[in-house]
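Render this sequence as a predicted structure.
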Amino acid sequence: MKLEDMIMAVENRKGMETNFLTDMWGFMEMAVKACDDSAIDLADAVGALYETKAGKRDWSDLYFAGNKSIHASFCTGEAQLRGFLAGNFNHGRWSFDKERSSGKCLAVLRMYNMKPDGQPLFPYLHYERLEHSFHTGEVLRNMNGNDYRVLAALSPENLLLMAQKDSQIIVGRGVQFYGRYPKDERPDSDSMVTGIEWDHGVYLGNDITKIDFDILKQEYGEPDRVESVYGLREKVRGDFWMQKNVEMKEGLPGRVRNAARDCLENTFGTHEPEVFEKMLEKGMYDGMYETREEQKKISGQSR
């Protein structure tokens, strides 16, 4: 069972609150009783619960006769779970009912090194590095319980990440994948939690339009591997537009933009994209820019 599949529940009976952890089967049993076998009400109750998973609401509610109600929410992370076990979501008198909690949920607590009161279960944990190939689009959780989506794998150990919580964009340097389990125990699916750690994070804000990805790739990525003439031409095209973007960027001093234009002329024989594409298609850059005279002829014809 995953942490995100666990349901936190608070029963309020005449002002006394009882916390417990359950799974979807346990919630459905409660919902059937609360909805009095009404299929429509049951569907609404399940839909409201899943809205807590999507972040559209904090808690869903089930109401029973006799001053009894149950508030339920899918767990979204370690920090929220610790707060729930510590009573941070209660109002007034409360207790945690271990007997009423699902055995699967209690096993999840053990995996995350928590007692039912939120305190550490084991005094020491062992971290073991695991082999993992990071890829764009996957969601990774660090050992603090925060989730990050991989925007780009700049290199095997340098990742461009976006925090799921606040959309902060970060370059994680020296990212490694680890398994964590109680010291002196054999790791298995009931005791190991996996996650990432990194040596250093470079925080770039949450406005993606202000990030220069070419600079990030140069600074934290690996050199492009060119394995064919088509790969070479794509690399040349990228180099051209990196300089062209500097030439066109408003707000830069004129001398900087002029220098970028001069660099384009000296390197590619032109600063005009249409001319550059003609030269590229004719293979003028395949020989490491050795055919300057041909470049000048084509460039001159286009003007």
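Summary. The first strand starts at residue 7 and ends at 13. The two ends are 67 Å apart (CA to CA).
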